[in-house]
Amino acid sequence: MDNTFFTYKIDDRSLIAFIKREIHNLVLQLGFSPHRAAETDIIVAELTSNLIKYAKGGELLYRAHLDGEYNAIEIYCLDNGVGFENVAKIMNDGYSSSNTLGHGLGSIKRLSNDFQIYSMKDWGCVQYIKICEKPDFQAPAIQTGLNYAAIAVNYPGEKDCGDGYYIKQTRKGFQIFVGDGLGHGQNAHEAVQMALKAFRQSGDAEPADILRDIHTKVKKTRGLVATIVSVDYKTEVWTICGIGNINTRIYNGLENKTYTPYNGIIGHNIPRTLNSTIVPFKKHQIIVMHSDGLRTRWNLNDLTSILKQNPGIIGASIFKDNIRGTDDATILVGKII
To answer: Which of 19, 152, 157, 331 is the most exposed place for a label (fewest CB within 10 A)?
Structure first.
């Protein structure tokens, strides 16, 4: 299993049974008990039926999550429906907008290990759900450093993703890689995976030097575009260098800046001179990086109180409004805490 999400457009009630069966079989493969799998069925049924009843359709993204300590399923539910003005109110049992018992969202929250929801009136809704094999499992909270989430989806119909991302800890801090193999499918996947291997082996070298090294190692592939950002806790700086059209943006409160990469294709032609951009590193900054499978004309300031949300909700909100559907798409959002 890789780190990409399966995605389904939910526009007809007939799809609900199929998706329930797909996710049910997946969680059993992960080792969920029959009882926990049945609880997962309830969550999926509520999410998908709500999309049909209230939003006239939407999109469901899901993947298996494996990290050695626990197995889980992660789900994003996205819609462009009428939205809600008061999210806290709709979470209360007994609230209903359709004269039903009103236990839907409350039951999702009780049965899941993590449930987040964000909505605006006339914009729609984004929900994030994590269901672990152990109902009482709680992941340890991140005290300092980077809290992040990423969404990656394949080009429609492809089995392999031509995008890739990786975060590694270094002696100085951490580094993030986001790359996009040219085109899509197996050849793009091969290029980005070879680049990821070189990145993982690069230690704490500077981003520009890592990109040069990757360039030499992927010359027999289709090539890719990529950006690497590095954080040094001691000097309190970001170091940013990219080649090709990976969008990188850092928010300091309501202010934000996009960092322009060099023109070129890693593995084919890159500039002779690569200079990194140095940016002050501060707590509470938000970094957003994504491939060109998403449009770039977005602004988090257009979404009320979105900066207070967790990285997954932020990324899913950008994804919902800006997915092109004509290529692989990856978005990574990190919050400095």
So the answer is: 157
Is the pLDDT assigned to residue 93 strictly greater than 70?
no
Q: Could you tell me the two tokens for 256?
A: 């934000």
Residue 103 backbone class (left: φ over 0; alpha: ψ -120 to 50; beta: rest): alpha
Count each helix (H run) and each strand (E run) in the chain, helices first.
Answer: 7, 15
Kindly list the distances between the CA atom of residue 291 and the CA atoms of 102, 122, 227, 244, in Å, as whole numbers in the listed order: 39, 27, 10, 10
Closest CA to 7 of 257, 336, 328: 328
Ordered domains of the chain (ranges, CATH)? 6-132 (3.30.565.10), 146-336 (3.60.40.10)
Say if CB 102 and CB 94 are below 8 A apart.
yes
- Name the β-bridge partners of 331: 151, 290
Residues 6+ apart with CB under 8 A from 41: 20, 23, 24
Tokens encoding 222 = 């289709």
* DSSP per-residue letters across 318-332: HHHHHB-SSS-EEEE
The tens digit of pLDDT for each residue in 106-144 reads: 899 999 999 999 999 999 999 999 999 999 988 877 767
Q: For residue 99, what pLDDT is reported?
A: 41
3-state secondary structure of 117: strand
